[in-house]
Amino acid sequence: MGSYPGLPGRAPSGISTLLSADRRDPFLSFARGLNPIEQFLFDHYVNVVIPLMRCNESAIFFAQRMIRLWVPTAITESSLLDIILLAACRHLSIAYRQGSQGQQRIFQQLTFQYKSQSLHALRHAISAEMPMLTDSTVAKAIMLAYDELYVRDAKMLKHHVDAAVEMVTLKGGPQTLGLDGLMEHFLLNLITKTRGDLELSVRTPWEE
Question: What's the 3-state SS for 111-147?
Fold first, then answer.
């Protein structure tokens, strides 16, 4: 199994990564080979993180849409796969806050690494694609904004949300986004939470 530069090839002590073959690559289409810790992170995202996400839908219905639409798309592109692994690391780094400091530090380090890689990929994609931005690039901006929402970083959340709105406006509005309406749902839920939970203003030109 291939590794990724800078990542540990094995899991932190005390964390099991013994996954059955069907759980290592259930979609058989990863953009790159995953090392054992990445296999563990992906499994955690699918089986723990996704069920905790609702986006104002029933948990079961939303999880089904995520597994059917978002995950198979995200894992076919390395930079979107990084965002999935970022979400898993972020959740684990917070989950271990009351436990092992050593394990928490490892997940914090991985969170920082995946976040840096994701930001770099987003900047590169924007500069390469403007003004015809792909859904993949919009998805990167939206998911990075959700990461800022999760940690309540209002300044960076505002930055990413405004960037995502500008991208979607250039594409012609939320209705132009793909994944059978799921990306539009991601965006509108993000805007609602940004306005409601953090009381930040978000201008949406398509509503004017």
Answer: HHHHHHHHHHHHHHHHHHHCCCCCHHHHHHHHHHHHH
Give the mean pLDDT of 58-63.
81
Q: What is the pTM of this model?
A: 0.85
Q: Return the SS3 of 19.
A: coil
Confidence of residue 53 (pLDDT cuts 50, 70, 90): confident
| Of the candidates 110, 84, 81, 80, the residue with the CA atom closest to the CA atom of residue 15 | 110
Structure tokens at 200: 């930040």
Cα–Cα distance, 187 to 174 (Å, whole number): 8
Alpha-carbon span 37 to 43, nearest angstrom: 10
- Rounded to 5°, the CA angle 87-166-31 comes to 40
Instruction: Provide CB contacts within 8 A for 174, sequence distance 6+.
Output: 168, 184, 187, 188, 206
88 within 8 A of 117, measured Cβ to Cβ = no
Tell me the three state secondary structure of residue 153: coil
Percent of the chain residues past pLDDT 90, beyond the cut? 68
